[in-house]
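Summary of Year 1 activities. Much of the first year was spent building the evaluation harness for sequence design. The harness presents a backbone, in tokenized form, and records the residue chosen at every position. We chose the following record to illustrate the format because it has been used consistently in internal testing since the harness was completed.
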């Protein structure tokens, strides 16, 4: 066999996980076989030399993707992260579904302004298909009618262009946009998912996030080196199997730098999150994107820091409403961290919510 045509031998997801000290449970082992099979198909080149040299979309068009659904905290995103790291194709993308749809809407708007007499959805779909032969989504969840109306047309084109979709979700395809307004608009997309992906349910099992957090204090005080190291260890435990990276996200047209992100958890300093010109809606955006926030270095809050205190209240409201968790390091216990008067009444609700969020 020519050196150019060596068959790629992939390591199994289970063996890759073990190198990171991750032991799959029975449900994860079941799902890993689907990922292993898909990885082999994607990474193994065609035996046809001409096609291999071109390595066009035609090599991938007949490969079915994967729609993985199941309970919260079952490691779906972690397994997809391991899978994504092993894909040998350059034109691959992994992003949160919510971020993908934001990008799609922005692109469609721009196309419609520049090429006014053309189908902007069609143009955007073709552009996306060219840039992403393999597309991985975290947390597919359709709640917006604008998303529902676009998805069917968008993926009808992208699937025809050869895009392979791998996505995680807490619900099966039939549950997407359930009881939503004009739900008929999304039904062709759901049928396309069934044709173009293998629908796999991860069996019930332990919630790895709760297991990692169990026994750990969620609010550590005072601000000492010992407590800083404790939070480092909690983050390390939560992010096992994930690549820790930084992200710059856009909220309300402003860019927000998150220095550490892994496992859908963002770690950021209090000053960088609550001393910025952010509104309540911006914190809701963060809560939709992440499963939890690790917030470092919360100072004593008072009327001198009235704006920072108000933003912290908004942050807790958003995390609580979206069922996210908070891990924090602070100068004082959360019941004593606010020592002002202006937000005293509002902060009682914040204390109550932090108490509930700490009882995992």
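For this record, the design step produced the sequence shown next.
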């Amino acid at each position: 066999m020519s050196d150019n045509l060596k068959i790629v031998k992939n390591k199994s997801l289970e063996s890759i996980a073990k190198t990171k000290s991750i032991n799959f449970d029975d449900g994860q082992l079941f799902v890993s076989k689907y990922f292993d099979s898909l990885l082999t198909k994607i990474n193994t080149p065609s035996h046809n030399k001409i096609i291999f040299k071109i390595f066009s979309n035609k090599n991938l068009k007949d490969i079915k993707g994967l729609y993985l659904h199941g309970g919260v905290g079952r490691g779906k995103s972690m397994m997809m992260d391991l899978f994504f790291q092993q894909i040998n194709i350059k034109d691959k993308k992994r992003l949160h579904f919510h971020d993908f749809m934001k990008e799609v809407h922005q692109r469609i708007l721009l196309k419609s302004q520049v090429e006014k007499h053309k189908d902007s959805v069609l143009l955007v779909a073709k552009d996306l298909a060219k840039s992403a032969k393999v597309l991985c989504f975290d947390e597919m969840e359709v709640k917006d009618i604008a998303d529902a109306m676009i998805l069917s047309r968008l993926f009808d084109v992208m699937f025809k262009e050869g895009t392979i979709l791998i996505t995680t979700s807490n619900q099966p395809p039939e549950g997407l946009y359930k009881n939503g307004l004009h739900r008929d608009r999304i039904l062709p997309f759901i049928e396309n998912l069934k044709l173009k992906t293998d629908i796999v349910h991860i069996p019930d099992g332990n919630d790895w996030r709760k297991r990692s957090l169990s026994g750990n204090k969620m609010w550590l005080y005072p601000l000492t080196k010992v407590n800083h190291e404790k939070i480092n260890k909690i983050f390390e435990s939560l992010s096992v199997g994930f690549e820790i990276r930084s992200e710059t996200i856009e909220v309300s047209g402003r860019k927000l730098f998150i220095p550490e992100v892994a496992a859908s958890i963002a770690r950021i300093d209090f000053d960088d999150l609550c001393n910025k010109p952010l509104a309540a809606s911006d914190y809701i955006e963060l809560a939709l994107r992440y499963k939890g926030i690790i917030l470092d270095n919360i100072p004593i809050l008072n009327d001198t820091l009235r704006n920072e205190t108000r933003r912290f209240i908004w942050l807790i409201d958003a995390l609580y409403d979206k069922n996210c968790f908070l891990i924090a390091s602070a100068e004082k216990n959360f019941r004593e961290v606010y020592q002002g008067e202006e937000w005293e009444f509002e902060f009682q609700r914040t204390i109550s919510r932090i108490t509930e969020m700490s009882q995992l």
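Residues 1-8, 47-58 have pLDDT under 50 and may be disordered. Quantitative recovery figures across the full test set are reported in Table 2.
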